[in-house]
Design goal:
heterodimer; A: alpha/beta; five-stranded parallel sheet; two-stranded antiparallel sheet; 9 strands; B: alpha/beta; OB fold (Dihydrolipoamide Acetyltransferase, E2P); Rossmann fold; seven-stranded mixed sheet; five-stranded mixed sheet; globular
Chain lengths: ~400, ~450
C-alpha cells in the first residue's frame, strides 16, 4: 500500500528566469522531414503520434525535405517571404508610432509571422478566420490594404470600424477576418458555430479558429471542442503556442499534460503539432487540414509551436520575467530568415535581392503610413465623427439614438 | 401634438449656422431618418434628419437664412389629423429670433435639448377588429410561432438542451423535431456558454438561430457571449457582421426551485445597447412578439415564464400576425392610477385592478410587452391622465425596470404627478425555497393594492 502524505500544491514554473542562461533542452525537436504525412482520411486514432512530434519541412541547410514538403512553386514562396517581411516592417513602424504617441497600444508578431501568412495561402475566398491578437498576416496575405490597417490602429477618420475598437482589433468580412474579441477565446465556439452553419446550409466554406496557448484554459475552448467533436463541421482549430501568455509560461495553461495538440485526443479529433517558424510546414499542415474539411472529414486541431520574440504588447516588458536572450536561443529559428535561406538555396533569391526587397517594402509601408497619418492619428488630424458613434448599435437606428446624436451636436 | 423641429448643433461649440437648403416642403410626410434639410457652418455642411414621423406643417425659417441660432424652431411637424392652422409655436417661432444677441459663454451642448419631444403613443390595434379568436396556452403559442417562422424561413433553427427528442424541458418545442428534423431542431451538449457561442457563430455565418435556455438562470454562464459578442459585434465590426438571433426560455421564479433557479433578468438585459428585450404576458403577445423577434435583424432576449406556459388566452385565428416591438398594450383603461407591468407581473396588476374597482378606484393597466425598445410614450400619456403610477415586477428593486420607468416619468411628466411613483418589486433577498417564504419574497397583489391606495391617498 502506498504511504499516505499531506497533499502538496504543484505549481508549474518555467525552467529559467531572467539572469539564467536560455535553455530549451526540454523542447524536443525532431529533424525536418521525419514526421509521417498520413492520408487526410486516416482515422484520428491511427495518427495520434502527430500530436507529440513537430512537423517540419525546412532543415538547417534550408532544404525542403520529407513527406510534408509540398512542392510550392518558387513564385508562391517569394510572395510568402514578401508577406512576412511586410508584416514585420509594418509592425516595426507601428511600434515606433506607438512610442511617438500616435496610438495608445500595439501588439506585434515578431517571430510568429509565418503562421498567419502561410495559413492564409491555404484558404479560399469565402472562408472565415476567427482570429485573436497575432494573426494580422491573414489580412496582409489576403491583400487587405495596409493603410486601412493603419487607420484602424490610429483610430482616425479612415478607420473601417469607426473608432470603436482597440488598435489591432481589425475586422473585415470581405477578407475573411472576423472581428477580434478582447474577451479571450469567445471566437473559438463562434468559429465552430459558423462552420456548423456552413454545414447546415451545405455551402463549401470553412472556418478557422485561432487561440493562444494561455487562452486554451478558457471554457470557450473546451465547449468549442465538444461541439467540433460532436457535429464535425468544417473547422480548423488552431492553437498558437508562443510559449508565453504575457508573463505566464505555457505550462500554467497546459499543466504536465502532453501537448496542447493532444487536448484534441479526448475529443476524438485529429491533432497536428507543427513548426510554426517554418513557412512550408505551416502551409502544408494548413493544406492537409483544409483537405479534410473540404472532404467532409471534420475538424482538425493544429498546434503551431513558436516563440513570442517580442513583448505581449506595448504595455509589456518581458525582461522582467524571462531572459533577454531567450528569443535568439529559440531552437526553431526565425521564420523570415529560414524561408530566405531556402529561397537562396533554390537559386531564386539572393542577399542583394533581399536587401532590395526590404527597401521596396519599407517604402511601401512608409507611403501607406504617410497616407494614414495625412488623415489623422489618435490625437491629431481627422478623428472619427461622433455622428457615427450612434450607428450599428442596432441594425436600424432607433429614435432615442437619433435624439442623443442630435444632443451631442450631430 | 405638433412637434417643433429645432435648429441642430453640428458640434458642441456651434451656436449658429446657415439653413442652406430645405429638402422637404410643407405638406410632405416624413419618417424617422429622412433628410429634412442641409445645415452649414463655416466648418462643415450636414444633412439634418427627422427623429419622428409626421407631416411637415410649416417651415418657419426659409432656406438661405444665415445665422440661425441653435435650438431655434425651424419647422413644425404635425401628427396625423392635425392641421397647419393649429400651429402655435412656443417660442415665437419666427426667423427673427435668430437675430437675438448670442450667449457666447453658453456652449450649444448645454442648451435645452435640441431634439423634438417623444412621439405620441401608438394605440392602433394589433390585428384587425372582428378577427376570430381561439383559446391557446402560452406554450402552444410559442411553439406555433417557432413552427410558422421555421416554415417561412429555412435559415431559422432551434438549438438547446432537450429541445429535440424530449421536445423541450417545458414542452415548448412539441412536434418540431418531427416536422423539421435533427438539422433544424438540435439537442446540444450541456454547456450554455458553449452552445451560445456556437449559435452566435452560426448567426454570423448566415443562419437565424433560436437558442432555448432551459431557464434564463443557466444563461448566466453564457452572458459573455450574449452581451460581449452577440450584442456588440455589429457595432465593433463597423456594421459588417451582426447576429440576427433569439435567446429564449423561462425567466423569473417558478415554484419551489430556490435561489439559483428563480431570478428575473428583465432589468439586466434591458440595459444593454444592441439587444432587444421582450417579456410577454399573454399567449397572443408571446406568439406575435416571438415571430417579430425571429424576423428581427438584431439579437433579441425573449423572457418567458414557466408559470404562464400553461395559462390560456385568446389568440387571433390568423395565418400570420406579428406584434411590433416598442408598443405597449393597454389591458384596462382607467382614470385614477396607471399600473405598469410586463410578463407575469401583469397577473398581480390585473388582479389588483379588479379588486380596486370594487373599492371605486379605476386603474389603467399597461402591459409593456417589450422592455427594449420600451413604449414610454404610452406610460407618459397615461400618467398625464391619471397623475399617479405604480410599477409591478418580480425582480429585485436595485435597479428595477420600475426604477427606470420612474426616472422617465420624473423627467418627462414631473408636473403631472400628484404622488411619488411606487415600484412594487420582489424582496431584496435571494429566493428562499420554503413555500411560505417564497410567497413573501415575490411581489403580491395585496402589495400592488396597497401601493395604489398610497398614491391615490385612499
Amino acid at each position: 500500500m502506498t504511504e499516505e502524505r499531506a497533499p502538496s500544491l504543484h505549481v508549474p514554473a518555467p525552467s529559467i528566469r531572467p539572469g539564467d542562461d536560455p535553455d530549451f533542452s526540454h523542447v524536443s525537436i525532431p529533424r525536418a522531414g521525419e514526421v509521417d504525412r498520413p492520408d487526410p482520411a486516416t482515422p484520428p486514432e491511427e495518427m495520434r503520434d502527430l500530436a507529440f512530434s513537430i512537423i517540419r519541412v525546412l532543415n538547417r541547410k534550408g532544404e525542403a525535405v520529407g513527406p510534408w514538403a509540398s512542392g510550392l512553386d518558387s513564385e508562391t514562396l517569394l510572395q510568402g517571404l514578401r508577406d512576412m517581411m511586410k508584416l514585420r516592417i509594418y509592425d516595426a513602424r507601428m511600434m515606433t508610432a506607438q512610442r511617438q504617441g500616435k496610438t495608445s497600444f500595439y501588439m506585434q508578431h515578431l517571430g510568429e509571422e509565418a503562421i498567419s501568412c502561410a495559413f492564409q495561402r491555404a484558404l479560399r475566398k469565402g472562408d472565415m478566420n476567427f482570429p485573436t491578437y497575432r494573426q494580422a498576416g491573414l489580412l496582409i496575405a489576403s491583400g487587405y490594404p495596409l493603410v486601412k490597417m493603419m487607420n484602424q490602429v490610429y483610430s482616425n477618420d479612415g478607420d473601417p470600424v469607426r473608432g470603436r475598437q482597440l488598435p489591432v482589433f481589425y475586422s473585415s468580412k470581405e477578407h475573411g477576418f472576423f472581428s477580434i474579441s478582447g474577451n479571450l477565446a469567445t471566437q473559438y465556439p463562434q468559429a465552430v458555430g459558423w462552420a456548423m452553419a456552413a454545414a447546415i446550409k451545405g455551402d463549401k466554406r470553412l472556418a478557422a479558429a485561432w487561440i493562444g496557448d494561455g487562452s486554451t484554459a478558457e471554457s470557450d475552448f473546451h465547449g468549442a471542442l465538444v461541439f467540433a467533436s460532436t457535429y464535425k463541421p468544417p473547422v480548423i482549430l488552431n492553437i498558437v503556442n508562443n510559449q508565453w501568455a504575457i508573463s505566464t509560461f505555457q505550462g500554467i495553461a497546459r499543466g504536465g499534460a502532453g501537448t496542447f495538440a493532444a487536448r484534441g485526443h479526448g475529443f476524438g479529433l485529429p491533432a497536428l503539432r507543427v513548426d510554426g517558424n517554418d513557412y512550408l510546414a505551416v502551409h502544408a499542415a494548413a493544406t492537409w487540414a483544409t483537405e479534410r474539411a473540404r472532404a467532409d472529414l471534420g475538424p482538425t486541431i493544429i498546434e503551431f509551436v513558436t516563440y513570442r520574440a517580442g513583448g505581449h504588447s506595448t504595455s509589456d516588458d518581458p525582461s522582467a520575467y524571462r531572459p533577454k536572450e531567450e528569443g535568439t536561443a529559440w531552437p526553431l529559428g526565425d521564420p523570415i530568415l529560414r524561408l530566405k535561406t531556402h529561397l537562396i538555396a533554390l537559386g531564386v533569391w539572393s542577399e542583394e535581392r533581399h536587401t532590395q526587397a526590404e527597401a521596396e517594402i519599407k517604402a511601401e509601408v512608409v507611403a501607406a503610413q504617410k497616407e494614414a497619418e495625412a488623415i489623422g492619428t489618435l490625437h491629431s488630424g481627422r478623428r472619427p465623427t461622433p455622428r457615427d458613434m450612434f450607428e450599428d448599435v442596432f441594425a436600424e437606428m432607433p429614435p432615442h439614438l437619433i435624439r442623443q446624436r442630435h444632443e451631442v451636436g450631430y | 401634438m405638433a412637434t417643433e423641429i429645432l435648429m441642430p448643433a453640428l458640434s458642441p461649440t456651434m451656436e449658429e449656422g446657415t439653413l442652406a437648403k430645405w429638402l422637404v416642403k410643407e405638406g410632405d410626410t416624413v419618417s424617422s431618418g429622412d433628410i429634412l434639410a442641409e445645415i452649414e457652418t463655416d466648418k462643415a455642411t450636414m444633412e439634418f434628419e427627422a427623429v419622428d414621423e409626421g407631416t411637415v406643417g410649416k417651415i418657419l425659417v426659409a432656406e438661405g437664412t444665415e445665422a440661425v441660432k441653435v435650438n431655434t424652431p425651424i419647422a413644425v411637424l404635425l401628427d396625423e389629423g392635425e392641421s397647419a392652422d393649429d400651429i402655435e409655436t412656443s417660442s415665437g417661432g419666427d426667423a427673427t429670433k435668430s437675430e437675438q444677441a448670442p450667449e457666447p459663454d453658453k456652449p450649444a451642448a448645454q442648451q435645452p435639448q435640441a431634439a423634438p419631444e417623444i412621439k405620441a403613443a401608438d394605440t392602433s390595434p394589433d390585428w384587425p377588429e372582428g378577427t376570430a379568436m381561439k383559446q391557446q396556452t402560452v406554450r402552444e403559442a410559442l411553439r406555433d410561432a417557432m413552427a410558422e417562422e421555421m416554415r417561412r424561413d429555412g435559415d431559422v433553427y432551434l438549438m438547446g438542451e432537450e429541445v429535440a427528442e424530449y421536445q423541450g424541458a417545458y414542452k415548448i418545442s412539441q412536434g418540431l423535431l418531427d416536422e423539421f428534423g435533427p438539422k433544424r431542431v438540435i439537442d446540444t451538449p450541456i454547456t450554455e456558454h458553449g452552445f451560445t457561442g456556437i449559435a452566435v457563430g452560426a448567426a454570423f455565418g448566415g443562419l437565424k438561430p433560436i437558442v432555448e435556455f432551459m431557464t434564463f438562470n443557466f444563461a448566466m454562464q453564457a452572458i459573455d457571449q450574449i452581451i460581449n459578442s452577440a450584442a456588440k459585434t455589429l457595432y465593433m465590426s463597423g456594421g459588417q457582421m451582426g447576429a440576427p438571433m433569439v435567446f429564449r426560455g423561462a425567466n423569473g421564479a417558478a415554484a419551489r426551485v430556490g435561489a439559483q433557479h428563480s431570478q428575473d433578468y428583465a432589468a439586466w438585459y434591458m440595459q444593454i445597447p444592441g439587444l432587444k428585450v421582450a417579456m410577454p404576458y399573454s399567449a397572443s403577445d408571446a406568439k406575435g412578439l416571438l415571430k417579430s423577434a425571429i424576423r428581427d435583424p438584431n439579437p433579441v432576449v425573449f423572457l418567458e415564464n414557466e408559470i404562464l406556459y400553461g395559462q390560456s388566452f385568446d389568440v387571433p385565428d390568423l395565418d400570420d400576425y406579428t406584434v411590433p416591438f416598442g408598443k405597449a398594450r393597454i389591458w384596462r383603461e382607467g382614470t385614477d392610477v396607471t399600473i405598469v407591468s410586463f410578463g407575469i407581473g401583469m397577473r398581480y396588476a390585473l388582479e389588483a385592478a379588479d379588486k380596486l374597482a370594487d373599492d371605486g378606484i379605476d386603474a389603467e393597466v399597461i402591459d409593456l410587452r417589450t422592455l427594449r425598445p420600451m413604449d414610454t410614450a404610452s406610460i407618459l400619456q397615461s400618467v398625464k391622465k391619471t397623475n399617479r403610477c405604480v410599477t409591478v415586477e418580480e425582480g429585485w428593486p436595485q435597479p428595477s425596470v420600475g426604477s427606470y420607468i420612474s426616472s422617465v416619468i420624473m423627467q418627462e411628466a414631473f408636473d403631472y404627478l400628484d404622488a411619488p411613483v411606487i415600484n412594487c418589486t420582489g424582496k431584496d433577498v435571494p429566493m428562499p425555497y420554503a413555500a411560505n417564504l417564497e410567497k413573501h419574497a415575490l411581489v403580491t397583489t395585496e402589495e400592488v393594492i396597497e401601493a395604489v391606495k398610497k398614491v391615490t391617498y385612499k
